[in-house]
Structure formats: structure tokens, C-alpha cells
Q: What sequence folds into this?
């Protein structure tokens, strides 16, 4: 059975506010009818990604504000949130620099796993992960609106709604210091650690500069790694030009682990209490947690909205892979043409794997009906 996915194109062809993408987002919110999913005075997590120092292609504050206004209009009490990607104080400052703060979005902005990344509740997951620590503010929230920026990713090939809650809904740290109890559990897919072959190292120091927690040390001659500090985020593996560092586990397990973690996060909500908006805009090839933002691989497509996480994920991935590659981008560097499944071919990793895994877990339907919204119907 197919699910409805509403779509607002990024094209704006008339000199009228109601045809703007912001107005069309208001219409998407109206179509999902927040009042059917959010009760009066309910706390509602608006889950997004705050970006990183050097990366600016996140969901813009104006769009977050419109979602917040929609939650308030339904009687809910929204808060905009993410989990610690770097140390909490620094991450909140990154959010502020990106323009995400209470004044801009019209709601409190907080870290779902607390300022130090420890606040979480243990939740059962699947056979690969066993258990995951869901961030407390997400675990306790009665409802959630998942606002995702669609882009590429080092391991999953695609970062959309599934990755947003699978990795972004899990605590960044665990008080025990055991990375297997936090987000690193996903990056290294369970029991595996980072794999480092320093015989291949040329001391380019890219891993040293990209590490968000100072776990890589250079004494002027040699590199060393602090395993207790390491969050297993995989950034060092992504930037190493020699392949001297690799995340543990297998790609197949990681893709399945994403679906398992998403299922665990969603299991903390009653049916019908989670809504999804995916922004297929500024589709860069890297995750928003990397310290840079490359040029988009395809033109802006628009915004998707649905109550089905698998359907909206499939629709977003289809839009990107079917689009024409942009010049002066990674897609152009790879010589790709329209019809070449842009993200999958550019990155060498197919995000379809975790979408399929999510569907197999019963999180939603890959079959969808795309309903285009062309304007804001009423004011």
C-alpha cells in the first residue's frame, strides 16, 4: 500500500508570496494537519541538525520557525533539538552561529542528550545493535517533527529522515565512557572498533585537524589516538587519503544498524505522533557534521512532507538520484549524467540499502504517491 508524500517544488515562478517556498511549506504543514497528531500542551521535539563550524548547508532558521509556528497553532509546546556532535557548549554556539536560537526559531533550542551528551534512556534495538541510548528529551517527548536536510554521508550514502533520528536521536556520549553505549555504537556497527593501519600513514594530519574531540595527537613525529576520548564518529576515516583509517564493521551492517536505531527511537512514540519534513535543498555530498560544505551535486528540488518515514525517504532519494548533476560539483568530477543515480554513483555507497532495511522492519512503505503543492491555498 502506497503512502502520501506531499511535495513543494523549489521553483518559484510568480511574483507572489503564496508561491514562495516558505509559503508552500506553510501549505505542507496545513496538509499534514498537526492538530490530528499533537494534543494541547504536549511537548513536541522538532528534531533537526545544527550543522558544524565550516558547514552552512543546513535547514534554514526560517523553515524551522514555520514548523514551530505550526506546532504552536496545534496547541503544542515545541522545542528545537539535536544531540551532541561535539562538546555541548560548543555545539550550541555552532547552532547560534548558524542562526538557530530561540529568537530566530521562536522556541527553546536545546540538546536532547543534555549539555554533556550523557542524558539518555536505554531502549531495545535489533540484532546488530542490541540496545541503543535514546536521547532523554526525545525519549520523553510525546510527539516529534523530524526536519531533515537531505545530503550525502560517509557510510550511509544518503542522509535524510532515517539518519536524522537514527544517529541524531541517540546520545553522543555515555557516562561509563564506553562508546558502545552511545552514537559510536552505530558508526562502528556494534562490537567493532576503528581500524587503523599506521604503516600507510603519510602524516598529512587531516585526521588530526578534523577530529571534533581532540582524540588524535601529534607530537611532531608520530600520531597517536586516545581510544577513551574517541567518539567513533568516522570523520578521520572519511578524510584519510591513504585509507589508513576505517570504521569497524561492514557497510551492510551499518545500513541495517541505521534502520534498527531509527526503529528504536520511533518505538518511544505512540503511533501517529511523528511527522516528517525533508528538505531536498543544497544537496551537498557530505554530512552536515563535517567541517566544510562542498557545492551541491544537484539543483534544489524542494520540500517533502509525510507521516511515513520510509516513503518520504524513498521520495527524497529518488528526487536526488533522478536529477541532473550540477557542474563544478563532485557529481561533475565523477563524469555523471542525468539517470546515473547521482548520490550513489558519486559516493560509491548506495543509501537505498538502509531505506530497504527500514521497510523490512515495517517502519513504512517504499511505495508512495507524490502530491505536489503549488501554492499556499489560504491565508
A:
Amino acid at each position: 500500500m502506497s503512502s502520501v508524500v506531499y511535495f513543494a517544488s523549489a521553483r518559484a515562478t510568480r511574483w507572489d508570496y503564496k508561491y514562495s517556498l516558505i509559503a508552500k511549506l506553510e501549505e505542507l504543514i496545513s496538509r499534514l494537519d498537526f492538530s490530528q497528531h499533537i494534543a494541547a500542551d504536549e511537548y513536541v521535539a522538532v528534531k533537526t541538525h545544527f550543522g558544524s563550524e565550516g558547514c552552512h548547508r543546513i535547514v534554514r532558521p526560517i523553515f524551522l520557525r514555520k514548523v514551530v509556528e505550526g506546532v504552536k497553532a496545534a496547541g503544542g509546546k515545541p522545542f528545537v533539538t539535536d544531540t551532541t556532535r561535539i562538546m555541548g557548549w560548543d555545539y550550541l554556539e555552532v547552532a547560534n552561529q548558524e542562526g538557530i536560537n530561540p529568537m530566530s526559531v521562536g522556541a527553546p533550542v536545546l540538546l536532547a542528550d543534555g549539555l554533556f551528551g550523557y542524558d539518555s534512556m536505554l531502549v531495545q534495538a535489533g540484532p546488530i545493535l542490541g540496545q541503543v541510548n535514546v536521547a532523554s528529551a526525545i525519549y520523553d517527548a510525546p510527539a516529534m517533527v523530524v526536519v531533515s536536510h537531505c545530503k550525502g554521508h560517509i557510510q550511509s550514502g544518503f542522509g535524510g529522515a532515517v539518519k536524522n533520528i537514527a544517529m541524531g536521536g541517540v546520545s553522543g556520549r555515555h557516562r561509563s565512557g564506553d562508546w558502545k553505549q552511545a552514537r559510536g555504537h552505530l558508526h562502528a556497527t556494534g562490537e567493532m572498533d576503528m581500524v587503523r593501519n599506521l604503516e600507510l600513514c603519510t602524516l598529512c594530519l587531516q585526521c588530526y585537524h578534523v577530529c571534533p574531540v581532540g582524540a588524535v595527537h601529534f607530537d611532531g613525529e608520530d600520531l597517536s589516538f586516545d581510544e577513551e576520548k574517541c567518539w567513533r564518529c568516522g570523520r578521520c576515516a572519511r578524510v584519510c587519503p591513504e585509507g589508513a583509517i576505517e570504521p569497524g564493521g561492514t557497510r551492510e551492517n551499518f545500513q541495517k544498524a541505521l534502520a534498527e536505531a531509527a526503529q528504536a527511537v520511533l518505538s518511544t512514540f505512540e503511533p501517529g505522533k511523528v511527522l516528517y519534513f525533508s528538505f531536498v535543498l543544497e544537496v551537498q555530498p557530505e554530512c552536515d557534521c563535517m567541517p566544510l560544505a562542498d557545492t551541491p551535486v544537484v539543483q534544489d528540488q524542494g520540500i517533502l512532507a509525510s507521516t511515513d518515514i520510509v516513503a518520504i525517504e524513498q521520495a527524497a532519494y529518488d528526487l536526488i538520484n533522478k536529477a541532473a548533476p550540477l557542474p563544478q560539483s563532485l557529481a561533475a568530477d565523477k563524469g555523471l549524467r542525468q539517470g546515473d543515480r547521482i548520490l550513489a554513483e558519486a559516493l560509491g555507497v548506495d543509501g537505498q540499502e538502509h531505506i530497504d532495511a527500514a521497510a523490512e522492519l515495517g517502519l513504512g512503505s517504499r511505495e508512495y504517491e507524490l502530491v505536489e503543492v503549488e501554492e499556499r491555498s489560504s491565508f
Observations:
- The two ends are 33 Å apart (CA to CA).
